[in-house]
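Audit log entry. Action: structure prediction of a protein-small molecule complex. Ligand: adenosine-5'-triphosphate. The ligand was supplied as SMILES and no pocket hint was given, so placement is left entirely to the predictor. Protonation state taken as written. Sequence taken verbatim from the request; no trimming, no tag removal. Recorded inputs:
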Amino acid sequence: MTSPGWGLAGRLLAAMTVVVLAGGFTAWIVAAAVGPVVFHQHMGEVGMGAGPAAVMHAEEAFQSASALTLTIALVTSVAASLAVSVFLTRRIASSLGTLTSAATRIAAGHLDSRVDRPSLGVEFDQLADAFNDMARQLEESEALRQRLLADVAHEVRTPVAVIGAYLEGLEDGVTTLTPQTVSVLRDQGARLARLATDLAAVTRAEQGARSLVLAPTSPHALLSAALAAARSGYDSAGVELELDVDPGLPTVAADADRMSQVLGNLLDNARRHTPRGGSVRLSAHLTEAGLVRLTVADTGEGIDPDQLGLIFERFYRVDTARDRTSGGSGIGLAIVRAIVHAHGGTVTATSAGRDRGSRFDIDLMPAPGQPV
Ligand SMILES: Nc1ncnc2c1ncn2[C@@H]1O[C@H](COP(=O)(O)OP(=O)(O)OP(=O)(O)O)[C@@H](O)[C@H]1O
Ligand SMILES: [Mg+2]
């Protein structure tokens, strides 16, 4: 909301005028009170006593010279104040105007609007930088929101279409309710339910550190719990599962439940992408930088280098058709990344390429206050 009244130029000019007038008034008072006394004294010192007409004349000359000087100084100062106010106001107003119109454009949905640094001093540069940061973040979250909506719509469309088509067929009598039809309908319903659960899980994970309950946890305890939970799935898939934890590792500040979700997702992926007869190794060791590294490495189908940067995105699957039939929504690694980031850690994927295995490294800071 804008309030009517004085603009920036008016305020600046008023402030400067007050300063000039205060200075002028003080100079006037001082000149009127002190000037004649000093003048008189000097006249006395050079031997001209009070009284003669010459002294009166000299005093009058002094007073009018003082008045003239002060008036000229005052007028010049007011003119200079006016010039400075106008100049500064123009500079500031043009920078603020750029900022205002950029903000208006952003409010109207043009999130790519940015402003240049106005070169009006560090404060204005900081304002421009902060504005650009804000605009960039808005743009990123808007892009994320749109992609998420598109992804969700895409995921929901297929099961809903299948259910709709079957129901129509049943209504028209084209299809009959056989155990197979029921199973298709149930599968599609389960897929929708799983999508809802996954979305809730990824949203929760992305809420970040707020929801974590951190406690010093030994890497061995984390990995062996994950191994125990995954064991039966691996046995039935015919994939070997090994554990290899360096002795004497420091503890990490971790939420054990959320980390078991992370390791569970990685182990689930490794099992699903490793053929029967392959193996998956779960290991922990200290990096050169003093971080605790948890690794899930498999001997399976591997990941192409150009896909490595994408697999952590929500709903991303390398082989959409096959991964869909094998039950993935493409959300597991997004959850992994969100939880690891909330712990202040990093997760990276590496692979030597197709059929040459994949490896996921999670680097965590050791819990504070312990010998490394
Ligand atoms: N160990 C792995 N080996 C090969 N490819 C992998 C491996 N882990 C993940 N991927 C690829 O990364 C994609 C994304 O994995 P992510 O865990 O996010 O989704 P998903 O496993 O398909 O589904 P979800 O985990 O939601 O059930 C997978 O679809 C798969 O193509
Ligand atoms: Mg997964």
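Audit: result stored. The domain at 135-206 is CATH 1.10.287.130 (Helix Hairpins). The pocket of adenosine-5'-triphosphate (ligand 1) is lined by residues 198, 265, 269-270, 273, 298, 300-301, 303, 311, 316-319, 323, 328-334, 358 (CB under 6 Å).
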